[in-house]
Structure of TRAP transporter large permease protein:
Amino acid sequence: MDPATIGLLAFASVLVLLALRVPIAFALGAVAVAATFIIFAFRTGSFMPERALRATTSMVFNNSFDLVHSYSLSMIPLFVALGHIAYRAEITTKIYFAAKVWMTRIPGGVAMASVIGCGGFSAITGSSIACASTMGRICTPEMLRMGYDPRLATASVAAGGTLGSLIPPSVLFIIYGIFTETSISKLFLAGILPGLLTLAGFLLVIWVWVMRNPEIAPEVGQVYSASERREAAIAAWPALMLFVVIVGGIYGGIFTATEAAAVCVTAATLIGFAQGTLTFTGLWDSVKETCVQTAAVFFIAAGAKVFVSFIALTGIAPVIVETVSGADLPVVTLMICIALIYLLLGMFLDPIGIMVLTLPLLVPLVESYGLNLIWFGVVVIKLLEIGLITPPVGLNVFVIANVVGKDAPIDRIFAGIARFLSVDMVVLLLIMSFPILSLLIPLGAR
């Protein structure tokens, strides 16, 4: 059988396994290994399993070894650890509290503070789902207690949690950079303006929604004094410092992204102990949770790496590039088709699974059109971000639903999400239409 045909069948098999809820790491790895074995076994025309076994095992172990020993991959456990340590040291929660103190008197101010808190959390952790889970436990119950409409109380946090995908650091950007061999530091910088633009759009959605329907966000009776607002702002300095170290250090050429992560983990730990908000038990719990999450990501990355090598072996990518080039599709049409693919997959699959499944096929196609891979990475991450709150399987929505329980059914959360999705689509169109939004900061970096 032709290797390209085997590749297409393997791709279809992965989709079927994912639809059956087989973990993405096992689906990618198992299909890639089995299909690679078949290709090598029939390479000479006759079935030779002994020859295929050696070639297949060599490919699997070499790719897995190279991935695990990748210097860039060390960023993932560092940034995951930073998120857990910062949370237990109360660095991330102080961002939300400061925003709440300053915005309480604004209509819908607590919901706005929740979005800002999610943005601040994202600027430290890099995980959208972790952001939604953590901030959902902090913000949503408080808004419901204040009498906020469940749609606003839940949707604002579910949407705000997606900011972790774009605002650096981002685990998705790290994986994209590894598999496309692009600069992760430049990807981090490229996500800043689109991330801030998205955050501003979410705040605008809340303001317009509350102004048109004041009853969904009752006024808060508590009034904070000027000294309380000042103290709350000062208390949030560690989060601001960590963000400045990450972004400023990378932009100024002082640190690589990996070095920035290591410095911030050390700084967050020292700040937590110095302020008495972090204990040795909390630090140990952070380490354990980091190990679990990192292992899950590494398994997925290893399976994806083997699958990428298998795709290269089949020669599918050149066939797709040749076919699309022969069709002479305009760039606009190509990007619309890619966006539709990601939006469709985002309704059913998790972001990492979508990315590692599609990049081996789409990146050669994008390169053949001469498009900038940094800009394309921002577009991809934005599409994955939208998928986190897109029905019927918006992961962030289910995270929030698990947090609030019966107080806000999933259909109510999705009803509120629609307004935030409209802003996401506008930002996506702006990013696709004006690449400078993504490339302005990376172009100015050293």
Notes: The mean pLDDT is 84. The CA atoms of residues 179 and 359 lie 8 Å apart.
